[in-house]
Each structure stands twice: as C-alpha cells, then as structure tokens.
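Long-time lurker. I teach an intro course on protein structure, and each term I like to show students one example going from raw sequence to a predicted 3D structure in token notation. This year I'd like something fresh instead of my usual example. Would anyone be willing to generate the tokens for the chain below so I can use it in lecture? Attribution to the forum is fine with me.
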Amino acid sequence: MKMSKKMKIISMVAIGMAAILTIACATVSNPNDEPSSTEQWQQKYPQVFNNVGYSKLIESAEIKSKKIAESEQKIVSVTNKFGIYDPVLQYLITHISNESMLYASIRFQQYNQLMYMSDSVESAVYYAREGNLPLHCMDIISIAETSKTIKNISQIMDADAFYRARITQTENRLNLKLIGPNMPYSRMDTFCKTGNY
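-- Reply from a regular --
Happy to contribute to a lecture. Here you go:
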C-alpha cells in the first residue's frame, strides 16, 4: 500500500523530531549533577573557570592545596581548581549572580578550607585572619546576602561527617581567641574596591 505524499512528509518530520529529542536528552545532563573532575568543572561553568579575573584564586589554591595531606585528598572532596569543598563551590556558582560577591565568596571559602584543614592553632588563626578581608568585601556588597551564604555553606559542610569533625576541632582550637582583621577597615575598603585580594 502506497503512502501519500502528505503522510510521507509528516512521517519524516516525526522521525526528525524524535532524533532531535533523543540527541538533546543524551547531551543535556541533570543541572544538579555535581562535577567530579577539573575538566567537568570547566565544561559546566566556563564563565567562571575561563574568566581571567579568577586566575589568581586558582593559582593561590594550587600552591596552598599542598598543605592538605595526600591521605585526605579523597576525603575532602575537592576536584575543582579553587581548592574548596565541591558542594560548597557548586552552591556558590549556582546561587550567587553578582560577580564581585561570587569572587569574594570563593576567596573567603578558600581561607575557611585552609583553616579547617590546618594542623596547628597558629595556622588556623592565620587563615581565620586572612578570611576577614573577603568577608568584609562580601558585607560591603550585601550584608543580607553574606549572612544567607554563610548560613547555607555551614549547613552544607555540617552535613559531611569529615568536615563536621574538622569544624568542631577548629572551633575548639580557636575558642576564646580574638581573631580580628589584620589591617584597618579603610585599607580593607580599598582592596575591596579594586578586587585585588
């Protein structure tokens, strides 16, 4: 039985649409999937990882990440070039739209990561102090957004047993220690304006 010209066209369109749909489904991954390698982070978030402004954050992380013991590399769940806990970076990139806030938040979290992974009180205090500058810059942009971000980051890290133990250990180490900024607020304001931190 011969198919009419009209039916052939409808059939070809249907096959074409099915092929397009199949390709789309195969190539679009779940947006909630968490990258698990440097390449995946770069593919999923090229706007961040290919941004020249973030290169100093990456360089800083690559130098300081050597402080994390090799035996803990897998446990700490860090596969991104910024050197911070993967679920936290995922949260920051997907929830912060302001470019300056995102930069300051990543920098702040880098110091937090180093503080939690410190093997001495002195180094924990040092990183806590260094974290005051990006935290101040976050506050300048939006105190409400900073408060929300810190609260959500704390919940994410607290859900991981390894980090929960590290956070408790760090809090005990820093108990009763005064950890203020290591420069005047006026100077911090200047750094925040230039983004040079």
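Some talking points for your students: The chain has one domain: 32-194. The radius of gyration is 23 Å.
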